[in-house]
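Researcher: Let's do a round of design. I'm pasting the C-alpha cells now; please hold your answer until I've finished.
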C-alpha cells in the first residue's frame, strides 16, 4: 500500500481543472471534529483505558472519518507538467489521493490484523510527513489549500492507526502541530489598513480589510480576527481550530507517558 496511491494521483492530476470551491461550514466542522475525536482516541489508548472505552472511541472515530467527504483535488488553471505550478499540482494530487485512500482504508481498521495495522501506520505516516514537505514548498495558495485539506484527513488517520497498532504517536503529533502552524502561515489572507472618516468625532477610524485567495473578505478593527474570518472556509480555518485544540493545555501533554 506504500504510495501505491501514486497511480490514483496521476489520474487526479490529469483531470479537467475546476475553480476551487468554497468548503461549507459543515465540511469545516467535520474536519475539526475528526481531529478532536482522534485526540480523544489516542488519549484513551495511551492512558490504558478499558478495552470497552477504547472500542467505543474507535467506533466514534470511524463514524467521524466516514462523514468526511472523499478528498478530491480542485485546482484552477492547471499548467503544464514541467512548469513549477504543474509540478506543485502533481504534488497536491499525490497527497490528496493518499488522503482519499487513508479515509477509505480506515473504515476497515477494526478488522485489520496487527501486521496490517503497522504497515498502514507506516504508509500513512510517510504520506503525512511528505505532505507537510509539499505544503511548505508549493507557491500558490489554491494548491496549498488542496494539500492542507488533504492533510487534515491524513494526519488524524495516521495518528489513530499508530495508536491502534501500539506505535509511538508523539513524533507524529508534533509534526501535526507544526503542520497546522505552517498551514496558518501559508494560507494567510492579504490584509491592508483602511481609514474611514468618523464625522461624529472628526477623526479617522482605522480598519483592517482582508481577502482570502477564494475571494472571501472580512473587515474589522482586529487584524488577527479579520484574517481568521476571511480565511474561515480554507484549510487555514481548520488548522487554526485544531492548533488551538492541541495547545489548550493538556491535549499534547496528555499523550505523554
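Researcher: That's everything. Go ahead.
Model: Designed sequence:
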Amino acid at each position: 500500500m506504500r504510495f501505491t496511491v501514486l497511480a490514483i494521483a496521476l489520474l487526479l492530476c490529469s483531470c479537467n481543472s475546476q475553480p476551487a470551491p468554497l468548503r461549507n461550514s459543515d465540511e469545516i466542522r467535520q474536519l475539526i471534529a475528526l481531529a478532536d475525536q482522534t485526540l480523544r482516541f489516542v488519549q484513551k489508548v495511551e492512558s490504558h483505558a478499558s478495552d470497552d472505552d477504547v472500542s467505543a472511541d474507535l467506533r466514534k472515530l470511524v463514524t467521524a472519518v466516514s462523514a468526511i467527504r472523499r478528498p478530491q483535488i480542485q485546482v484552477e488553471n492547471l499548467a503544464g507538467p514541467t512548469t513549477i505550478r504543474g509540478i506543485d499540482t502533481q504534488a497536491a494530487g499525490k497527497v490528496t489521493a493518499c488522503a482519499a485512500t487513508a479515509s477509505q482504508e480506515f473504515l476497515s481498521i477494526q478488522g485489520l490484523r496487527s501486521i496490517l495495522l503497522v504497515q498502514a501506520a507506516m504508509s500513512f505516516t510517510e504520506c503525512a510527513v511528505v505532505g507537510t514537505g509539499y505544503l511548505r514548498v508549493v507557491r500558490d495558495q489554491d494548491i496549498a489549500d488542496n494539500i492542507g485539506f488533504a492533510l487534515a484527513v491524513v494526519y488524524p488517520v495516521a495518528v489513530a492507526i499508530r495508536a491502534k497498532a501500539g506505535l509511538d504517536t508523539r513524533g507524529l503529533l508534533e509534526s501535526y502541530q507544526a503542520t497546522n502552524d505552517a498551514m496558518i502561515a501559508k494560507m494567510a489572507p492579504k490584509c491592508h489598513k483602511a481609514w474611514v472618516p468618523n464625522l461624529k468625532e472628526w477623526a479617522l477610524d482605522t480598519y483592517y480589510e482582508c481577502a482570502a485567495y477564494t475571494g472571501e473578505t472580512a473587515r474589522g478593527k482586529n487584524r488577527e480576527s479579520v484574517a481568521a474570518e476571511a480565511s474561515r472556509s480554507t484549510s487555514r480555518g481548520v488548522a487554526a481550530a485544531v492548533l488551538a485544540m492541541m495547545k489548550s493545555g493538556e491535549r499534547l501533554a496528555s499523550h505523554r507517558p
